[in-house]
Amino acid sequence: FPKNLKFSTRKSIRRQTLNIMSIKNKSIYIDHSATTPVDKGVLKAMLPYFSDSFGNPSSVHSFGQEAIMGVDIAREKVAEFLDCLVSEIVFTSGATEADNLAIFGVIKALKRKNSNDKFHIITSSIEHSAVLELFKVLQGQGIEVTFLPVKSNGIIDIEDFKQAIKDNTIFVSIMYVNSEVGSIQPIHEVGKWIQKINKLKLKKWQEADPKTRGDKPLVIYFHTDATQAVNFLNCSTKHLHVDLLSLSSHKIYGPKGVGALFVKTGTPIDAIQLGGHHENNRRSGTLNVSGIVGMGEAIKLLDKKTIEKNNKKIAKLRQSLIAGIIKNIPDVILNTDLNQSVPSHAHFSFLGAEGEAILISLDLAGIAVSTGSACASNSLQASSVLLAMGINEEVAHSSIRFTLGKNTTLIEIKKVIEILPKIIKRLRQMAPK
Predict the structure, then answer these.
(1) Which DSSP symbol is given to 161?
(2) Among all residues, which ones are annotated catalytic?
(3) Model confidence band, residue 376 (pLDDT cutoffs 50, 70, 90)
């Protein structure tokens, strides 16, 4: 709902929606980029930690030790998936908190150690708000920020990135996969270039006269929000050459309210959430044991063979969806670059029909989709991602995001193809001429 709606109005609309849901057979869910259902195996692994192994993991007694054992096992599973050390994993309440800790935590540590330096940081213009808003806050604090543009397919130009780096650049954050159109950013290439720049900086300093070379130069630290990538792509932190990586449990068939941040050994980072000494003094707060156990179990299911199998199945279903929509609906634009995106995403603009109206009509027909990022669903503004891709505001307002998951079926896709053309036709006829 729009944020300016009164609470009583929002409550009334929700009640009406729930009444409609009780009548309709709401059975088709194609909004997996927003969240995923908890896998049955994940739920089974979590259950004992609600009532049996319920101790506080910080407690020394046996109840606490039983709980921390579940956390330790989950940490090992996450570290194995990310190809990193167990000590490099920090559990958080989700990817948003992980992004905040990565960005504010590193900048806070660098400012504390280098209070007189003028910093420059880089991000892309299509980041999730959990990154973009933080960079705007830092910009307001006097830090110079470069917001990289993207090409029409929603991907940064690597040459633009190289040109943006300055002598005082100390931090870069580029998301791995865009949540709206599914575009894959060249994280490996960005990471390798940063690594090259850092080595050259240090080599130049080491070769200089010790009497005149000054303090050791600041290097660039690289963060990626990999929330939308974990299900589909290689997330080895060594392959990506990242110093920090954020991820969330509820995007990978785990529970909500839990996420993790990879922090490479040696990366300066200060806690931004105080009040305790949890997670090696990097994040205060009693750990969500059941959620962490669930996240560990969810990520354990993502072995290489499973990812390849799911990718192949989902890509085939997406192709059927796209072909069916293009064949049966005129004046439609596919905004997802199929050659440079994860297989789950199919983002369309249906010219002459309003996106919110399409979403509601599909919802009433028992099909759940989205107009964009779930975190921006309360906004009436056109998607900043689409605008950055060069899509005009009117077209952007006519957009729908379909995101498929591992449990999506061909029968469901056929049902969408059957229902959607009728909805678009009706909405276009209703639209003011």
Answers:
(1) H
(2) 375
(3) very low
